[in-house]
């Protein structure tokens, strides 16, 4: 059984300009002991998916559909239409957050309270979830700080966050995340704010700690280098949808989706010759307020077909672990449900209208 | 090598930091840095945050006034020119900034932003300027009718292309690119890199390309300089520096870079550095890297290493004074025991 | 509904004109157009604007609607209640309250807006120079500000009134001497933080001169906070004038001001409370509306505050 199971999750945000569809029909599973990478660019919904899971979304969010199962328990945030249901959900999540599920954030400074000693902050988390005395919590905090490689933790326990460097702060965050022996750790760009040499230290630390504890890690990142180093499986998100999912090797060595191929083409691989030009993806990610009809990647796709602008692509599976959503991989007329247009472009009218609106 | 465009000698930029009422301390953001850039060449500049790479770029453009040193641009020392005297050089030296959200004035239209330089230097009439702005927009892959839009309507990558169009409006010979891709998405980074490369091919522009991402720097640069704590620790042709780094810091930096290739990433041997960059207010005496260097010797803690020429490279590390690795029977740095007792390695 | 006309139609490459990869969904609107649209959606702010416009209209055209002057006395109507002849009644000298209220509005609004504009000008220039130049200029200007700030602001007004006589001009000068300080500090702070932004460096690199950078790049981006500060200055000045006239050192009789009207109604407040009600109501409504207006403008110019 999977530790975490997300089925058909959608998240929308209501704004003054309209509804932002941040997440559309996203499904994936994470098992214990694996590192699962969610890769995507800004606006792809990678962070929103995890915030939806944790119930930490902003006020203006709506979750129209979706089911989330954690460790067999239903923690779906959808259809919380009565106050009682909302309170119950909130109570359930409060117990999980920081306990069985913990998070590591991108910017350690926003997570740590600047006026509290770091020891107090680590102990707080322990006391909230584990029944023990202050002394025991303190001993556990020292043990955790040693585990994440902070020298002389007995002394540093009584220091304030500003007395730590960026890398050390991130280690403290990791210590707080590990405090209650979580089953699932969500790491949201944990190394983006750090320098390369410090990033290497932190990645190494996350790797050894998860190997030891057997916890599952969901790693949210835009950095393909980090993914290649750390992750067992990857889901590629674009404009709020999963484009491709598979084992790290499957994604890197036999990518199926044009977007995945594009991403791999735009980075400078060590194997690549310098003289070989990069192959960027043209254009700009779509505005989530006005998504194109059909596949969201169609406007930038080099291999786009007519159907791509009319109907969302179906799922095609390549192995037990590798799946992808692209018409190129399932050119089967039987899957088409939209009616063919009389004139060539009539069915593609929504896109025409959009382009016309922009010209005007 | 082709004709030199820029030659920087012993450039220093110190910032005064007030400590208490009277006393002040100098932060040595750039400390005796020397390098040159040829016409049509790209020099990549890498280093971690706080190493002084951005300060160096800004000092070259006189956004910061240099504390000491020479900036020979086209044979003339521009470091000591007055602000007015430097004005003609503003047309020839331009800059692309890191944050495409902060580097465009939100209250001006794209047309006003790109046309401003031409207006300041009175290059052409209003009508010509509009036409030229439209050409520039097309050159960077945007549409001429975007001219009346405001910056916030564009995505990050589009904004960075607007910035590029702005710098190109003055037809410069030299552009300092200050981390132009760090704030962009992966799929967009390559667009910007390719655009910069094609512009270089077309116009023979020189770049100083500042970044912390080694992979992209290696791709775009002909030569690479590595900075640490205000010092240029190593500089040389990009392939040599990338595939056979000499300075211990360069080696660590390269090995720490996550490779976007799972098999290579797992096969890679990492040199994990302990600790973090010391504060530039209180840098170590001697070699700046001495506190983290696995090969540190006694001499490193005492005096700062001068730069040693090794083939077509320069490296500031005493290891290369002692062994001259390449010249003496190909003994490589790998054969030196890591963290060898200081006395032994000093006598070897 | 037919499912497919000819085989393979859907799997042909898509028409390039349908692939608009540089598509921008947001429609382009100027900054001001967007701000005014946001302002008009704010009901309280629009209410404030309507009230201010009403008082302004009253100040300009009110006196032409009735056949009285502010000092014309009619013994037959001493302390008269509102009637068809005197819409809001008459005071203890038989002067028409409505017309006096209109003249009061003239003085209040004039002092409010004129002092705000003067303070805006001085504050922007000095604050802008101080923030942009930095260093010694900044230190000297800010010490001057500190010195002016150290003296109670009411003292300036009273001293100026003693020197130049009790009239609108001297009240205005008295209010303006310490009045620009808040504006100057606000502008200075804004300029200092905007100066660090990359777009001002970009302008410098393009070769822009100091004037161009300060006004075209920095000041224009500080306009939101400046206008908000401005909307605080107006009610402050109106209050100061009303207070001075109320304690008897402001606008001298027989000229009417809302403050002096309150003062003269004070004696008979138990007998004729309406005489007190009109000027106080005017002051309160004006201040309320100005605050709503200021808040609305602030939100409209700075959408992220919401």
Describe how the helices and strands are arranged.
The complex is a heterotrimer of chains A (360), B (348) and C (306).
Chain A: E1 4-15, E2 18-30, E3 35-39, H1 46-54, E4 61-70, E5 73-74, H2 83-96, E6 101-104, H3 108-111, H4 118-129, H5 134-147, H6 153-156, H7 166-178, E7 184-188, H8 196-213, E8 216-221, H9 224-230, E9 233-238, E10 241-247, H10 248-253, H11 258-266, E11 315-317, E12 323-325, H12 349-359
Parallel strand pairs in A: 3-8, 3-9, 6-7, 7-8
Antiparallel strand pairs in A: 1-2, 1-4, 4-5, 9-10, 10-12, 11-12
Helix pairs in contact in A: 4-5, 5-7, 7-8
Chain B: E1 4-18, E2 24-38, E3 42-46, H1 53-60, E4 68-73, E5 76-77, H2 83-92, E6 93-96, H3 110-120, H4 126-139, H5 156-168, E7 174-178, H6 186-203, E8 206-211, H7 214-220, E9 223-228, E10 231-237, H8 238-243, H9 248-256, H10 262-267, H11 298-302, E11 308-310, E12 313-315, H12 319-322, H13 342-347
Parallel strand pairs in B: 3-8, 3-9, 6-7, 7-8
Antiparallel strand pairs in B: 1-2, 1-4, 4-5, 9-10, 10-12, 11-12
Helix pairs in contact in B: 3-4, 3-5, 4-5, 5-6
Chain C: H1 31-41, H2 43-65, H3 97-133, H4 135-150, H5 153-164, H6 168-195, H7 198-206, H8 210-218, H9 223-247, H10 258-266, H11 273-301
What would you say this structure looks like, in words?
The complex is a heterotrimer of chains A (360), B (348) and C (306). Chain A is α/β, with parallel strands linked by helices. Chain A contains twelve helices and twelve strands. Chain A has two domains: 4-231, P-loop containing nucleotide triphosphate hydrolases (Rossmann fold, 3-Layer(aba) Sandwich), CATH 3.40.50.300; 245-359, no CATH class. In chain A, the strands form two sheets. An eight-stranded mixed beta sheet of chain A has the order 6-7-8-3-9-10-12-11, with helices on both faces. A four-stranded antiparallel beta sheet of chain A has the order 2-1-4-5, with helices on one face. In chain A, strand 4 and strand 5 (73-74) form a beta hairpin. With 348 residues, chain B is of the alpha/beta class. Chain B folds into two domains: 4-110 and 169-233, Rossmann fold (3-Layer(aba) Sandwich); 245-347, no CATH class. Helix content of chain B is 34%, strand content 22%. Chain B is built from 13 helices and twelve strands. Chain B has helices at residues 53-60, 83-92, 110-120, 126-139, 156-168, 186-203, 214-220, 238-243, 248-256, 262-267, 298-302, 319-322, 342-347, and strands at residues 4-18, 24-38, 42-46, 68-73, 76-77, 93-96, 174-178, 206-211, 223-228, 231-237, 308-310, 313-315. Chain C has a single domain (33-305), classed as Orthogonal Bundle (MetI-like fold). Chain C is built from eleven helices and no strands. In chain C, helix 3 packs across helix 9 (223-247). Chain C is flat and about 95 Å long. At the A-B interface, helix 7, helix 8, helix 9, helix 10 and helix 11 of A face helix 5, helix 6, helix 7, helix 9 and helix 10 of B.
